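Before a colleague's protein record goes any further, I have to sign it off. What it holds is a sequence and that sequence's fold in token form. My question to you is simply how this chain folds and whether the tokens agree. Thanks in advance; the entry in question is below:
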Amino acid sequence: MANFNTHLSIAAAASTGAALICVNVHLIAITDMPWLVFLGTVGGMLPDIDANNSRPVKLLFNVLALMGVATALQVFEGTYSSYRLLSIAAVTYLVIRYGVFSLFNNLTVHRGVFHSVMAAVFFALLIICVSYHFVHWDVLHAWLNGLFIALGFIVHLFLDEFCSVNLSNVRVKKSFGTAMKLFSYNNMTASVLLTICTLALYWIAPSPIPLVNVWEASDWDDYLTPVRFLQQ
């Protein structure tokens, strides 16, 4: 499979390209780019969340813990005193960085249920729901947050699958098929639970219709021109 630096750089590059397109068609403002590129890069590391004590996992849980702290501070701002807010932030960081991290290490195996397309959908919907219901982002940006997480995630799976093919010897490695899969075939219980959680998140997620409307109203002429030329 691809190494950490490759996953990091390719996810960042793909997210940058996608964000630039969104800016060029006036789907987002240029000030939104850094955040979406950041989310896409995080998504590019998420599939390795099940690799025990690896560098990507520790970095991922540090990032997730900091995101959790930011969310907690925004949710409880104005409700508690500064002292209690700092306590909530500290507890949130410790629970995610060490509690959830330990739980994942004990319950998951590498290239298991979290290394699948279903997991990409799950994390995308999770970010959408958190962005909309807890951080109170508008529907458009909440869905873009989730889509960029999914973009980085899928890029990671594709890279791992691509690296399973030895092009020089035209040989397929034993790891082929373990990355770009719909769900974990070896652990159906975990796959069913992940599917249920994904459906639940989809149920409470905001309707994507506002995103679809803005998408359809965006200026796609420059990008569709080559396609139209080929169709003539």
Summary: The beta strands are 165-166, 171-172.
